[in-house]
Amino acid sequence: TAQETLLEVNNIEVIYNHVILVLKGVSLKVPKGGITALLGGNGAGKTTTLKAVSNLLHSERGEVTKGSISYRGERVQDLTPNDLVQKGVIQVMEGRHCFEHLTVEENLLTGAYTRQDGKGAIDADLNMVYDYFPRLKERRRSQAGYTSGGEQQMIALGRALMSRPETILLDEPSMGLAPQLVEQIFGIVKSLNEEEGYTFLLAEQNTNVALRFAHYGYILESGRVVMDGVASDLRENPDVKEFYLGMS
Ligand code: ATP
């Protein structure tokens, strides 16, 4: 049975400052219940693609000048980031962005601020987050500014979960983390996908780890998709091995 496509990006162009063409026609599909990876080197356009989807380009003087973006078949290009959260799409930004002066638990609860379904449901989700991130439960009364980089990545993902999303756009979850923590975070993403049904689109420079955990990958170079395929096929592809996996 074919999986339903949730997010569809169709041939988008993005221009910064009216002149700098950064995405030159990017297309991709994110199926429901999948982990889709957006791969490529520094500056390839991964973050720009995610921000185009969640409509976060305006503050950077960027705009989508061509193409279309739809979610569940509905055009979403003109929605605000908050409207998108209501539709079930949330972005976890690169660099994590915790509220440093709030506790870990207060940070998590900020993710639930637009919810209307009451304290019981919110508490249940907080417990779900603590089940997946026992470390956050241990540190729930600590000030977020004093937690480690790995813990802040967990807070950022946990806070996104608190909005009850359907699809999570995850920007560079491995950034700045030791290999063991990278494995741990990706392992949690995989469990959230398999056990709770969350759909992920993740941007990642670490091709090796991303292709072990994702189902499907798109490789971006200079604002274009140069290759895409099932993750296990990409891992065996000679070009991917040579240029992205550091082995030939
Ligand atoms: P990274 O891993 O560094 O985040 P990336 O693949 O996510 O890389 P982007 O951040 O999307 O790449 O950047 C793509 C290109 O767009 C880069 O050449 C970058 O310099 C340029 N760019 C990004 N933001 C802006 C901006 N606000 N104004 C002008 N150019 C920008």
UniProtKB/TrEMBL annotation:
Is-annotated flag, keyword Nucleotide-binding?
Answer: yes
Which Gene Ontology molecular-function terms are recorded? ATP binding; ATP hydrolysis activity; branched-chain amino acid transmembrane transporter activity
Q: Report which superkingdom the organism of origin falls in.
A: Bacteria
List the PROSITE patterns hit by this protein, alphabetically. Answer: ABC_TRANSPORTER_2
The UniProt keyword set, sorted, is: Amino-acid transport, ATP-binding, Nucleotide-binding, Transport
**ABC transporter domain ranges (all copies):** 7-247
The protein's matches in InterPro entries, at most eight in alphabetical order, are given as: AAA+_ATPase (IPR003593), ABC_transporter-like_ATP-bd (IPR003439), BCAA_Transport_ATP-bd_LivF (IPR052156), P-loop_NTPase (IPR027417)
> Quick one: a GO biological-process term for this protein?
L-amino acid transport
| SMART domains xref list | AAA (SM00382)
- What's this protein's family per the entry? Belongs to the ABC transporter superfamily.
What protein name applies here? Answer: ABC transporter ATP-binding protein
Gene source species: Aquicoccus porphyridii
